[in-house]
Amino acid sequence: MLNTSALYISRSAYQKNINYIKSIIGETTKLSAVIKGNAYGHGIEVIVPLAEECGVDHFSVFSAQEARRALKATTKNSTILIMGWIDNAELEWAIMNDIEFFVFEFDRLKTAIYEAKQCGKKAKIHIEIETGMNRTGFSEKNIGKLIQILQNNKEYYEFSGLCTHYAGAESISNYARIKSQIKVFNKLRKWLKRNGLIAKINHTACSAAAISYPETRMDMVRSGILQYGFWPSPETFIHHISKQENKEDPLTRVLAWRSRVMDTKDVKTGEFIGYGTNYIARDNMKIATVPVGYAMGYSRSLSHQGRVLINGQRQDIIGIVNMSLLIVKITEIPDTQKGDEVVLIGKQGDSEITVSSFSEFSDQLNYELLTRLPTDIPRIIEF
Ligand SMILES: *Cc1c(COP(=O)(O)O)cnc(C)c1O
Q1: Which atom of ligand 1 is nearest to the CA of 34?
Q2: Pick from 305, 308, 258: which is nearest to 288 by CA?
Q3: Which CATH superfamily does the domain covering 255-353 fall into?
């Protein structure tokens, strides 16, 4: 193996998750697979064709750069939607390639209309409205002006979508705020409609909203985290499962991270292991080195705390996570040899290291840990 570790993407787990999301949102609601953040670390180039095999034909990205990657990776001419950053200079490219994009401020709207005029092709726009998150979107006070521009330029755009985003649907503590956002969305949607402006689809829900607030599903759900086999929050899982007869977790993690033992060594009682005086052997010990460190995305805050699986057994990381390697105590599995598989995330035998156990130790959310997985670790699709 050329690389020190690899990320393995499970086809069957992914298919199962997609089927599950579809079963929740129903047949009349479309699924857009959110693949920003390098498909939550899983790899845009791997996930796009896999998702297409599994029946997905709509992808949401954050930036034009991610849209370019998705466009290259698509095998079925799926719809690609930019939810965030696109430079004005890229709008022509987007229009020419049927890339759809959020419009949440006037400069982008006017430039998109101008570019559409120039290239003789309609811009496919999704108007994002501000409903209470206070991040991006046209707010109520600007709707009059928005309506005017939209009405005067109908030949230059396709009103592909009307959308908003919720401010924390994964926590019940935001209940009143989310409910109010839904109200504002419907009010502004009707206002636009009265003025003859009807979007092809309305879409507002992320994973958590789709699960906890069914009325937010509308025509399309933009789901990220669920497709990769994670719940937006423990609360969302509990809320959902409490209403199901079968209490088993219907989602399966898609990603595993594996490396190999690089070397093993015996250490005598009283000797220090690794840099400085961070770790002292209290007994005669056996250790293994693994060629993964913080340069490969294995957080340094897992020093002294992280666990890995070797030969089906959970073993402790000892000392500090180094830049390119970590040290594991293998005193209890002394037969471990160079080349043995090391699981950093995922299953081995009956044991599992989950991303969330990992993130509890290191104080990172699932979302953050996943997206920090470096792009240069190879992603390999398996069963
Ligand atoms: C990230 C994102 C989503 C998906 O969120 P999940 O919690 O992963 O489902 C949906 N909509 C927007 C605007 C987003 O930025």
Answers
A1: 4
A2: 308
A3: Lyase, Ornithine Decarboxylase; Chain A, domain 1 (2.40.37.10)
Q: What is the pLDDT of residues 35-79, one digit of tens each?
A: 999 999 999 999 999 999 999 999 999 999 999 999 999 999 999
Nearest CA among 180, 85, 167, 173 for reference residue 134: 167
Residues in a beta bridge with 329: 287
* pTM score over 0.85: yes
Distance 136 CA to ligand 1 centre (A): 14
CB atoms within 10 A of CB 110: 14
d(CA 198, CA 203): 13
> Which residue has the least CA distance to atom 2 on ligand 1?
206
Domain ranges of the chain: 11-241, 255-353
**Contact in structure between 174 and 168 (CB atoms under 8 Å):** yes
224 lines ligand 1 (CB under 6 A): yes
**In the CATH scheme, what is the code of domain 11-241?**
3.20.20.10
Q: Using an 8 Å Cβ cutoff, are 329 and 267 in contact?
A: no
Terminal-to-terminal C-alpha distance of the chain: 20
Sign of CA dihedral 306, 309, 314, 315: negative
Q: Are 342 and 310 in contact (CB under 8 A)?
A: yes
